Amino acid sequence: MSAIYKIIDKKKLDIVKRPISKAHGLPNECYTSKDYTLIEREKIFENKWTVMLVNKKGNIRNVIRCPYHSWSYTSDGKLIATPHIGGMNQHSSPKFKKDKNNLKEIRSYVWLDLIFINISNNEIPFEKYIKPLSDRWAKFWKKKDRKLINHANDFGYFKINAKCNWKFAIENYCESYHLPWVHPGLNSYSKIEDHYHIQGLPNRFAGQGTVVYNPKFKGKKKFPCFPNWPKEKENIAEYVALFPNVMLGIHKDHFYAYWLEPISHKKTLEHMVIYYVGKKASKSKDFKSLRKQNHKLWEDIQKEDVGIIQRMQLGRNSHAYNGGNFSPDMDNPTHQFHKWVATHIV
User: Fold this and answer.
1) Kind of pairing, strands 64-65 and 72-73?
2) Which of 75, 218, 239, 286 is 20 to 30 A removed from 16 (C-alpha atoms)?
3) Virtual CA dihedral for 303, 307, 308, 314, nearest 10 degrees?
């Protein structure tokens, strides 16, 4: 018997995996239980490819040094220095074997400037994991175009403290059902009929696209576009979640990564990093006003979403709530995410 069934009735998780017209969403315990979160940490975040970002950029010169006791390691993880471990000015000890205490290697991969890690070393190779999405997006931007993405030093990042479970952000990102009511300021972008569900990707991906992307900023300037973005697709943008914790947005003139840092079962840090086409668009004064406007646009949108999903967290305290019902026509990506969690948590 799986440990998860000591926390959640098996029937509740089985219902999630039913066809969408008969399914309910994930049960409340998946959002409110500390014990569930410990299992989720292992089954979801340690077993899968997960996004993380370092605190600041740096270079490894000779060694990796721990700032606490100054133990030092080579770049391949070999422990080479243990100051005072045997007593004052005694930097070795017969009771401690350095070669038995090297750093443990974690699988990692850098893709589109994002650092992916697989702690448990049991997921498929990242190249295979990402290939379906990479192949899909090849019709929008060639691989050589992707190398042009450049992070904006100003107005290129923001962080939001969300008082809710991380899964709400993914669910919200996967669907357009909420747009007219939560984001009325988006005008034409908020029309449900202008969005489509992304089909044909494996169940570790889900998302939506729009056919009316046409940014309107003050002034006559426009961001440069990816050189090989098809003319007939210039008003298409796509927004795809890579489970568990990253959401990507591609447009003809910029790219962003929106990734989640779960702090607890009811607190999440949301990070957005914005990239443009080339250094001039991302760093020059000529495009500073546009960067500022685009930054404000995305920050306002995400804050509107956070406002509503924080209220959803509160709603999960209701014992009468069955996990939620799905629209068979509108909620397929969200249902896909719920099924993915329910499958991998067991």
Assistant:
1) antiparallel
2) 239
3) 140
Tell me the C-alpha distance between 85 and 81, whole Å. 9
Please state the pTM of the whole predicted model: 0.91
Query: What are the pLDDT digits (tens) for 60-103?
Result: 778 899 999 999 999 899 999 999 999 999 999 999 999 999 99
Domains of the chain from N-terminus onward: 3-33+134-344 (3.90.380.10)
- Reply yes or no: is the peptide bond before residue 125 cis, omega within 30 of 0: no
Q: How far is CA 72 from CA 60, 97, 106, in A?
A: 12, 14, 18
Please say if the pLDDT value at position 176 is more than 90. Answer: no
Convert the pLDDT of each residue in 278-310 to its tens digit. 999 999 999 999 999 999 999 999 999 899 999
Residue 188 has pLDDT above 50, yes or no: no
| CA dist., res. 189 & res. 106, Å (int) | 41
